[in-house]
Structures are given as C-alpha cells and as structure tokens.
Design a protein that fits this description.
The protein is mainly alpha-helical. Helix content is 65%, strand content 0%.
C-alpha cells in the first residue's frame, strides 16, 4: 500500500443560473397557498368557537377556550397545543406572553383577565367529567354495534361536565 502524494479535494459546483419566471411563480404560489390555508383554518376555528359561545359563556369560557375545547374532542391533550396556536396567532413573537395576558374580548367581562381562578377551576372540572376522546366513542360504537350508546354516553357526560364546571365556578367565585 503505497503512500503517494495526497491530492487536494475537489468538489464540482453546479453552475448558477437565474431561476425561470415559472419556477419563481410556482414557489411564490405555494407559499401563498400554504399561508392562506393556515389563516383560513384559524378563521374557521374562530367562527366555530364563537358559534358555541352561548353554551360555554356561563362557565367563563370565551371563543379561544371554546376553539381549544372543540379541538380537544380528538384527544384531551390537543387542548394545550390548540390554545398555544391561538395565542401564537395573536402574538407570534411571544405566544406565552399572549397567553398570560389574554383578556375577555367581549361581553360583560370584556377587558378582564381570561384565566381567573373560577374559569381555570371550571375548565379543569369540565375536563374531569367530559367524554372528549372520539376514539373512545368509536370503540363504544364498534362494541355496541350502534350509535345509540355512544351518543347517550357523550350527551350525559357533557351535561354532567358542564353542570359540575358551572357549580365549581360559582363556588370558587364565592370563595375568592
């Protein structure tokens, strides 16, 4: 094994060319389309959160919490990430600051902090009782062979969760 002189390392670089107008147009279109798709989902989610606002308003929840609750129907842990996305949409530079400083947007509590002790207590109790995992509902459907029992379970657990959350909010408001 001969040890000859070491040759220098050469790497051939591709020639640089000006991109075609079509390539630039396609890149810009893809970026715009992705942005509009993301913004469109956030706008639709806000509408859904506002649509159910009257149901959750007595618990002190606003549309942002409602959006996260609706998203958490897939799995409970989605609540936190969805609320983080909503906060990020409000303040992309500092979503944690946006989350801490969220205030109620409208209604009799407008301008007051969103996350108060009664609201947080009601939220925790709601999650304690609510049947929010749709995979569980799917398993109930498969095992029972009908949608009747999953619908009954979801309905009564929702009513129980809402009632207990409301009771908790009232008690915590009275104590604080």
């Amino acid at each position: 094994r001969g040890r000859g002189p070491l040759l220098p390392f050469y790497m051939e670089m591709p020639s640089y060319r000006m991109p075609s107008a079509r390539a630039v147009g396609l890149s810009v279109w893809e970026a715009c389309r992705a942005f509009l798709r993301k913004v469109g989902r956030i706008s639709l989610a806000a509408d859904a959160g506002r649509a159910v606002a009257s149901v959750f308003e007595p618990l002190g929840f606003d549309w942002r919490i409602n959006v996260s609750l609706l998203a958490s129907l897939s799995a409970r842990e989605v609540f936190v990430s969805t609320l983080g996305q909503v906060a990020s949409a409000e303040n992309p530079d500092s979503p944690s600051l946006a989350l801490k400083s969220m205030t109620v947007a409208d209604g009799p509590r407008a301008g007051q902090p969103l996350f108060t002790a009664p609201v947080l207590s009601a939220l925790l109790v709601f999650f304690l009782y609510a049947l929010q995992c749709m995979s569980t509902v799917g398993v109930m459907r498969r095992e029972s062979g009908t949608w009747r029992w999953p619908a009954i379970a979801f309905g009564y657990m929702f009513v129980l969760a809402w009632g207990m959350a409301f009771l908790t909010k009232v008690v915590v408001e009275a104590v604080t």
